[in-house]
Amino acid sequence: MAGDMDHLTKAARQLLAIEELLGGQYVPAGRNPPPAQGPAAAGPGQVVAASGMTPEEKAAALKTIDDNEVKGCVKCGLCHGRRNTVFGEGSPDAELMFVGEGPGEDEDRTGRPFVGRAGELLTKMIGAMGLRRQDVYIGNIVKCRPPNNRAPMPEEVEACWSYLVRQITIIRPRVIVTLGNPSTHALLNTTVGITRMRGNWQLLPSIGPDLAGIRVMPTFHPAYLLRQYTIDNRAKVWADLQAVMAELGLKLPRKSP
Would the pLDDT of 195 be above 50? Predict the structure, then answer.
């Protein structure tokens, strides 16, 4: 009984901490429309050429990969412990894509990315940018839950790699936000830690046709932020997100009083 109460108390504190992201000096942006698409969407930085597919064609292409390949995938040992694969969700025409490491327990149960406490925080972060989850695309580098939520092993990342590359190829985001070390290391082919990488714009290597040069912003994973919920870490993540907003030409939040 005491253990259950401790767990509930910890969960309540974390949820209260999530709400604090939108308070104090971290003033959220007003509602931003989804970023404009295609060549006319010129912003402060590089514009990635559109794939030539309509949003409907992109959605159909993503669904085909999910239904015909990912749901029945047995390329690595993670398939043996999963309840559901977790492909990704959001706008197939998004200019902003978030990439994490892999599904957790809640994601494995529901088949949706970022729906646990870390997902609640990510949703708040997206809301603070004046966007909604359906305005962006959210995915992971692996599509099945690693045991005990450990980081994916190299062979597991390799098994799922083509799925992620094809997701990016179809969606053609202008900006990718990598959440934490595993996704940052995989997409940028680096071993530099997230503490040094975060907040510094990077360029996506040539991982697929015409993908080299997509702007990448590494930042802390929401799960880490929940564990280390300090004013300093919150300020760093919020600064990273505001840099992304500026890159996409989104309306920045008003200054706090």
Answer: yes
